[in-house]
Amino acid sequence: MPLIQKLGSNQLVALLPEADPEQLAETLVAFANADGGTMYIGLNEDGQPAGNIYPEEINGLFHQAEALCHPPVLVEWQQSEQNGAFVFVGRIRRSPDLHTLRDGRVLVRAGAENRPLRGDQVRQLASTRSVGDYEAESVAGATRADLEDKLLEEFVGKWEERQGRPLTRPLEDLLIEMGWLTAERLPTVAGLLLFGRNPQIFIPHSGLTFVRFEGTGLRGESGEAGYGRREEINGALPLIIQRTWEILQEEMRRGAVVRSLQREEKWLYPPTAIREALVNAVAHRDYRIHGRGIEVRIFADRLEISSPGGLPGFITVDNIIDEHFSRNPRIVNGLFQWRYIEELGLGVDLMFEEMLNAGHPIPEFKEAAFAFTVIFKNVLDHAPQSGPRLSTNERQAKALAFIQRHGRITNRDYQELCPDVTPETLRLDLADLVENSVLLKVGAKRGTYYILR
Fold it and tell me: Quick one: which of 443, 439, 430, 409 has its CA closest to 319?
């Protein structure tokens, strides 16, 4: 069994110990409406076989589940054994159709959950289905020879490391399965962008432009161009990420300090947050837009990363923390297998935490018709701004002091601070701070926590 099963359920994996038709149908619809994924029936969350599912009954359960999906979801089923128990593996691809359950619900995969969508989110998701599956299309004029063998070799090493097993079948079979080659062994858009010798010949403006400005605006004091460094970065997407990251480290490094004989680098911005935003821009941009590429701009007071295309699917600026949807699931999967993406769907949360821990405001998101921009503001060299004025009770003051020390607070943390107060009163306390723009609520259900706005 691949190593990925040991990681538990996530954005691309569902471990189901029982073969319940309704749960199967919900997971089929959620995967098909999102990034696709793999379903393991008969495995517990720790990757161990449940041992209670048998081939004689599984076909009937599959048919019951498929009958609950409209339109039907295409699945590639395989049967295997682990420690003497049967495990059934179903691979679901992202679908160009919008799938619903028989009761009318529309679900998408969000982390390890199958999340239902509201009416406005369903309409937004349905509208994106009409653009087609661009990254899976073949590239006119490109052949297998346009893929860089060294990049493929490096990727296979990373893939084997993540899977915990060697690749024993032909490489082309894996590339076809991942959607990076067509059945005729021609590069798809995703395959050429990930592994191409020079993708920009075929897909113009698929690179990145880095610019460092000396002041806070695009022009200098006398009206001339205000930048001090400009670089055009092209090549396959992993090379673009790598080269841009090298430049960003040069620009953000602010010396070092020695603590307990250990050297610690000092940064203008937290590196992890900026790297997450860079990888997200490369992974999720709209590559159908050929008029411009990704832009990374550093000003005296901020860093901006802008990618062509608005937010994908049902994602909005308001739900970007809680929801996940990939415009380019094959590119995302490639970067995930390559370890440029460590865990799907957690990048925005990580950016918020890193910026707050470094003493900066949380990132700002700005969406236009054909671009999406993440803005990181630097306050290290500026006087601190006074916080919002609000009449708080003693409990709320404790909560704010806790956040100042720890960066965040959960409902459980708050209950431990105020053990003699009812959970409902504490919930209203936090809701009041959110309503007055003091706190920002992050996550949902058990994963909810609060940070300073």
Answer: 443
Separation CA 395–CA 393 (nearest Å)? 6
Residue-wise pLDDT tens digits, 374-404: 999 987 544 444 444 445 677 887 888 788 7
pTM of the model: 0.68
Place of tokens 């048998």: 54
Q: At residue 440, what is the residue type?
A: L
Closest CA to 194 of 327, 346, 32, 328: 328
Residue 82 per-residue DSSP state: E
Dist. CA 61–CA 159, nearest whole Å: 33
391 φ, ψ (degrees, to nearest 5): -80, 105
- Which helix H or strand E contains 86, and what residues bound it? strand 85-92
Do 269 and 301 reside in the same domain of the chain? yes
**DSSP 3-state helix, strand, coil percentages of the chain (rounded to 5)?**
35, 25, 40
> Before 170, cis peptide (omega within 30)?
no
Could you tell me the two tokens for 40? Answer: 């393991």
Cα separation of 123 and 133, whole Å?
A: 18
Q: Is there a contact between 15 and 44 (Cβ–Cβ < 8 Å)?
A: yes
DSSP 8-state secondary structure symbol assigned to residue 68 = T
Among candidate residues 75, 78, 77, the one with its CA nearest the CA of residue 99: 75
Q: What is the DSSP letter of 385?
A: P
Q: Please measure the distance between the N-terminal and C-terminal CA atoms of the chain and give it in whole angstroms.
A: 44
Kindly state the tokens that stand for 188. 């798809």
Residues 191 and 152 in one domain: yes
Burial (0-12, 13-18, 19+ Cβ within 10 Å), 174: middle
Q: Which residues contact 405 (CB under 8 A, 6 or more apart)?
A: none
The packing angle between helices 55-67 and 21-33, to 10°, is 60
Cα Rg of the chain (Å, integer): 24
State whether 429 and 296 are in the same domain: no
The domain spanning residue 437 has which CATH number? 1.10.10.10
Q: Say how many domains are in the chain.
A: 4
pLDDT in tens, 138-184: 999 999 999 999 999 999 999 998 888 899 999 999 999 899 999 99
Whether residues 66 and 143 fall in one domain: no
